[in-house]
Task: inverse folding
């Protein structure tokens, strides 16, 4: 085969391996250029090492959960929807399970199983792995010719850029793909972290570090807008710097990092109760604990780490006996529990983001094939594109779908 191929795939991650396997299955001489020793390195750490493979939902639901570029993905998702992704991995011998929020994981809870199966799919169909970083894509007269590495030139009539974004740079996703795309004349939008933890103004969250809330209402507001930016319900985590967890990561996709100081996260700590129902609950609790001090009467209502913060924010002295708390104070405390604000000062670094927002302009890519509209024979797939979705398996589904579509045309 030498240095000549039909197809060169740059990046051995979720999108690249899927595309390489599909290409090779079609009889195309295919090479995957990957600088890491292990293929699918980022895939191996997703979902905290469990790998949230996809979301067990419809194409329309994936699009609805993709705030940036959802409509562009209709063709790719229709051709390879979540149900096909699930069938694909189960046919490779990886049984799957659906958990809360329709998140799909391997039964083994091992991300390595998914990465190994995908790498095996590419390898067994004949795709060759080349462990060399690509320095540039060769093109002439508006057409791809191959790639150049430190060891020389490799020729191919089609090249797929599937290098990932700029999140988790330790896995190799260091933004190389953006550089390669720009060099070929493509527009790359500003790259910022998405699905990323948020940093609070102040130190309340650090005092609750490690506290996880399973059922919490989350609303994001912005100082210069009347309507909420985002609303959700589910799990969140207090950390030493602020907030994390699924609801917070999804919320970050609707926020602009450069304007982080304009946002406030409002937590509904008692989403199952209306204000009236919560007031009735507080009335009962205070009656039951009428001779106890306020700070020691909330054990059945709130997690232990939350109590000191809630007491301080209420303005009711902690030593106040429950029978002395006025109706107005009680109702104000109830309102605080239904709208517990956390001012945001920033995002955690791009290196901690699950995905990057921004990337190759969708206007310059054909959604029917993933081929560049500017350079013949150049294709894109995965996170390199200017698309990003919420947490819950949607981003991996996008990688698999765009990789599969590109692989069908490369």
Result:
């Amino acid at each position: 085969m030498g240095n000549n191929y039909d197809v060169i795939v740059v990046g051995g991650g979720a999108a690249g391996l899927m595309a390489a396997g599909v290409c090779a299955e079609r009889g195309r001489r295919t090479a995957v250029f990957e600088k890491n020793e292990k293929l699918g390195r980022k895939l191996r750490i997703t979902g905290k090492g469990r790998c949230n493979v996809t979301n067990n939902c419809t194409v329309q639901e994936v699009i609805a959960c993709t705030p940036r570029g959802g409509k562009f993905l209709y063709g790719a998702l229709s051709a390879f929807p979540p149900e096909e992704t699930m069938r694909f991995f189960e046919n490779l011998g990886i049984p799957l399970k659906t958990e809360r929020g329709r998140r799909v994981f391997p039964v083994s809870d091992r991300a390595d199983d998914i990465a190994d199966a995908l790498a095996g799919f590419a390898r067994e169909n004949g795709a060759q792995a080349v462990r060399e970083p690509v320095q540039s894509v060769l093109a002439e007269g508006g057409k791809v010719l191959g790639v150049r590495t430190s060891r020389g030139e490799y020729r191919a009539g089609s090249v797929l850029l599937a290098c990932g974004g700029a999140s988790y740079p330790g896995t190799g996703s260091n933004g190389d793909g953006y550089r390669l795309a720009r060099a070929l004349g493509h527009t790359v939008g500003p790259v910022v972290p998405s699905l990323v933890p948020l940093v609070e103004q102040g130190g309340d969250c650090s005092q609750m570090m490690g506290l996880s809330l399973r059922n919490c209402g989350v609303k994001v507001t912005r100082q210069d807008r009347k309507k909420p930016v985002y609303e959700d319900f589910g799990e969140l985590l207090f950390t030493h710097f602020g907030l994390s967890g699924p609801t917070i990561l999804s919320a970050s996709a609707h926020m602009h990092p450069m304007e982080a100081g304009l946002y406030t996260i409002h937590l509904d700590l008692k989403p199952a109760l209306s204000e009236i129902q919560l007031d009735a609950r507080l009335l009962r609790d205070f009656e039951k604990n009428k001779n106890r001090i306020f700070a020691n009467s909330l054990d059945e209502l709130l997690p232990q780490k939350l109590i000191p913060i809630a007491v301080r924010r209420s303005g009711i002295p902690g030593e106040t006996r429950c029978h002395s708390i006025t109706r107005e104070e009680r109702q104000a405390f109830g309102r605080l529990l239904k709208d517990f604000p956390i001012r945001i000062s920033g995002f955690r670094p791009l290196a901690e983001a699950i995905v990057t927002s921004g990337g190759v302009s969708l206007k310059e890519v054909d959604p029917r094939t993933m081929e560049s509209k500017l350079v013949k024979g150049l294709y894109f797939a995965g996170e390199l594109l200017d698309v990003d979705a919420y947490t819950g398996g949607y981003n991996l589904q996008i990688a698999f779908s765009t990789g599969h579509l590109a692989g069908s045309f490369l």
Notes: The mean pLDDT is 93. DSSP finds twelve helices and 18 strands in the chain. The first helix runs from residue 14 to 25. The radius of gyration is 25 Å.
